[in-house]
Queue: 3 jobs
Job 1
Amino acid sequence: MNHEVFLKAMTQIDDELIVSASDMMQKPKKKNPFLIFSIAACLTLICGIALFSRFSATVEISIYDSILSNQTIRVDLPAPAESDIRVSTPELISIPIQINADRIVHMSTKDGTIEVYSPDYSELLYTGQSYQSKELVYIQWKIEQPNIGKTYTLIINNNIDISLFYDETQKCWTIQKQ
């Protein structure tokens, strides 16, 4: 009889453990929708920042050692000889431009030519109307026989326009980024 009581006590404990374990397994955990949406929002934000920083290239354009902006910069032209009376327009305008970018930069012009030089100006790399580079480049934008009434444009990455025009108020050629 002693064994029967002991056996009954053991099976009763086992039955209670099985019932309590099955109760715990049957109760599904409630999912917190706020937690799921906040995790999704964080992942979306991280992906958006990563994509934005990848596709936004920084292009730094310098002319005469100053960063080009929406403000006009006066173009330095060689002074005409004192005996030369026809000071109306120069025969050639040559503008030194430094372009530094962290991605591929495409530059093109329909007005004049682009001469691309190595960073130390020791080697002429290209002469033409369009060029593509991923490193620091020095270019000379040359316009022959410029017309005072015309605006000349150099396009960089199809979204940055560098305009050269004659400013009637200052009586000089100026350049600016638009």
Job 2
Amino acid sequence: MNNKELFIDGFLDRISREFLQVSDPKKNKDLAFEIFSISAVLDKPFQEVFDNVIIKDKSGKRSGSKDGGIDGIYFRDLGDYYEMLVFQCKNVPGLKDNEINKFRNDVREIFSEGNRIGKKNIEDLEAFINEYKSISLSGKYIEIKCYFIYNGNNIDKDYGNNEPTYNLYHNPAIDYYIYDSNWVYDKVRSVAKPHRKTIEFTFKPQNSNFSLLDHQALYTFSISNTRAANFRVLALDICELMQKEININGSFDTLFEENIRQYLGTSKFRANREMNKTLNSENSVLFPFLNNGITIIAEKITVPKSAQDGQYYLPVVNPQIVNGLQTSRVLYDLYKIDPSKLKEVYVNIRVYETTEPSLVEKITDATNTQTPITYKDKISNKDFKEFAKTVFFNKGIVYITKRGEGFNSSSQKNIRNQIDSETVLKFWYATFYEEPETAKNSIARVLQDIYDAATSENNPLKILFDGNIDSPIYKQFIAVYQIYHLIQICKHKMVEDNKTYLMRYEHLLS
């Protein structure tokens, strides 16, 4: 038993809403499958696939009537030569020989043979044909790869022709691939969980100005397999790191993946407001005395043996800010307004080289001391939360897991509803776990039990909260949300009915 239908159908529903092409729901679902399956192959965002890969007519719509039997084309520049990935995607459970043969022949006739037979109804391919010809004229070799993707199973007792057809036509040796829904589902893991591109950054630790005899800029040590470096940098270094994250990964959110909170802003969170006030005052030079600094986990750090031209450099690979999100965001917000205000501002930095999850969690817990850490914070980064977010998001619901996340406007774009994870977990505990009294009286106990389930190997609930994509918990969460939503509707109706009753009662008394 797995969650294939839950995730794939959820993605198709979501993509159908976001890329509405026609009034026919089935046709929109078919287009959604094209976008989804091609995204899985290319590992690219849905929007980019729709904009640059899907075959569309001159009005920008996916009509499908003049595409030559091809759903998408992507040219991959590999330096000495190009790959041309050609797609046909069928949102159907069965494989058909004639469809596979037609696709293969269409690609060969239109591109390899230059459409010598004068194939009609290929106007929507014009831009791709021109690009193919342009690359060919440049003298670069083009290797064509064909992908036939369908929403069925290669082995299916109800579609006995699937397996022999797959075995006959799937042949990577000649660049012809047939992928079924199981292959697509395996790719959901990478689609559902954010994939961060590698970040390489070099910090510039500032020399000590304490002693004229010793300008040492950092101190380092190691315990077991973990190495640590402590130093002071200009606040501009942190802002440049955040900007680099945006440039490479499209957002600085991936820099804070391991952080247990979201940005809380300056209007409602006093500590951030005071921080911003200090940075905009003559006391900004005192910032490293007034601030706890920033703690970073990195996959690799390279400790310099000596200074270079009087300056130390500390390269890091894939840094993650696990403590200091509020500091980083306040600095960056000011940097975007007026970078000159940060020229003389310094920040204390601690960098640890480790990929051990348990140590990362210990460091995160120990360094987040400005505000109390709750069990809600502790479970906010567990793997099951990421898949739960995806399931809810596909249904048009923001599933809020971190403090401050509900105020993030970007997370609410095009979303109808939102719900706090605490509410879902509380209702789950009362219904599926059958502990309504505990759920009602102690949310702290509920969250502690779920944290234990996610972290302890011997916990009986481990199978639900271990972060496996096939856990039954995601379907249970959706059921819980539906119960909660129904209760809210009933409560609202009761309030409205009471208002109506009171108005009638007052009318009788008047």
Job 3
Amino acid sequence: MCCDLPLVYRGTPELFKACREELGFPDHKPPPPPPSSDGHGPHGHPQRGMCVAECLFNRTGLLENGKINKEALKKALDEYLKTDGAWKDVATTTLEICYDAQTRGDFKPDNEKFTSGSSEFLKCFTRNLFMDCIPEKWTDSEECKKMKEKIDKCPKMLPPALFNKRPH
């Protein structure tokens, strides 16, 4: 792991599981789909992430009337960072950047069903924290430097830590 990211808005494992169950998603990873006839396998299920993000944000009060609630985001961030104060400045700035981008309409929902912007906000927040990782949480290696360069060149790419860590 290149950056030990705080997974602020990810919910508890129980909440994550409850959302997956509510949405009818299995609690385990399904086997990979067979490749398509053109040799390229189909893309995964990006809707799952959007569904789960919206469910988590709804259940934790981060959405109000289908919109991201900035005050609730700040409160959740402050509560989470009580035990990880090293991230406070970077995370607070990142919250402002991603919230402002979301409310300006810079994020276009990837799906007509999930228009709250919770998934887009979460992606922005995680990506920006990774790119501005604080020194004491960063692994200074060639592999991590290359990963950061790659993510910098690919604006929609997310850090691998997002997929490797379970919420706590």
